Amino acid sequence: MRIVDSADVSPRARIGRGSSIWHLAQVREDAVLGENCIVGRGAYIGTGVTLGDNCKVQNYALVYEPARLADGVFIGPAVVLTNDTYPRAINPDGSIKSAHDWEPVGVTIEQGASIGARATCVAPVTIGAWATVAAGAVVVKDVPAHALVAGVPARRLGWVGRAGVPLAPEGDGIWTCPETGARYIETDDTLTEETA
To answer: How far is CA 97 from CA 15, 27, 44, 93, 156, in A?
Structure first.
């Protein structure tokens, strides 16, 4: 495990073996990072956030609680995972909002998914396994597994395989990964990998 001197890591955080926390990153209390995770310069990992094994959180990304990231998730530079459906600094009576005046909601990112640079995921949403959110996208609804989404708001443009490469259509709902040769079957706007 490597934690550089300028990082701010709570003693109540649990950091897995082989993980690295870089300059000016902050990891809050009760956060749990799996093995071999990388938290880049200036990134923020909120209270109680969970990262699986082999996750990468790039520079200046903001991962607010109660986000849950599965194994192998990639969070690009300056990504924001929000946690407040109706954000306000004050209550209707003008008093300053406290932690007791709202209920945090989280972003869930399933295995192997990637969130591109400066994308924003507006909680509560789930990003399906192996999906790719393009740089600069704003995600406001759930993203199915293997979907490639882009835009504001994000919309599905196609499908990607485990390698992250856009899949090529073969017809009749069959898609193939040009890099690995894996085949996928599309049914009712969902994609599943063909098993041998």
So the answer is: 31, 24, 22, 10, 36
Mean pLDDT split into 10-residue runs, the chain, 196 residues = 96 98 98 98 98 98 98 98 94 92 94 98 98 98 98 97 96 95 94 86
Domain range summary for the chain, segments of one domain joined by +: 2-160, 161-196
| Residue range 135-167, pLDDT digits in tens | 999 999 999 999 999 999 999 999 999 999 999
Query: Exposed e or buried b for every residue in 40-66, given b needs 16+ CB within 10 A?
Result: bbbbbbbbbbbbbbbbbbbbbbbbbbb
Write down the architecture of domain 2-160 according to CATH: 3 Solenoid (2.160)
Scanning the structure block, which residue is given the tokens 């259509």?
169
Give the C-alpha separation, 21 to 36, whole Å.
10
- Judge if the upstream peptide bond of residue 77 is cis by omega within 30 degrees of 0: no
pTM of the model: 0.95
**What's the rounded Cα separation, in Å, for the pair 165 and 105?**
31
List own/partner pairs for 177-186 with CB under 8 A and 24 or more apart: 184/146, 184/159, 186/159
115 conformational bin, left if phi > 0, alpha if psi -120 to 50, beta if neither: beta
Which sign, positive or negative, has the C-alpha torsion 147, 151, 157, 161? Answer: negative
* pLDDT attached to residue 111: 98
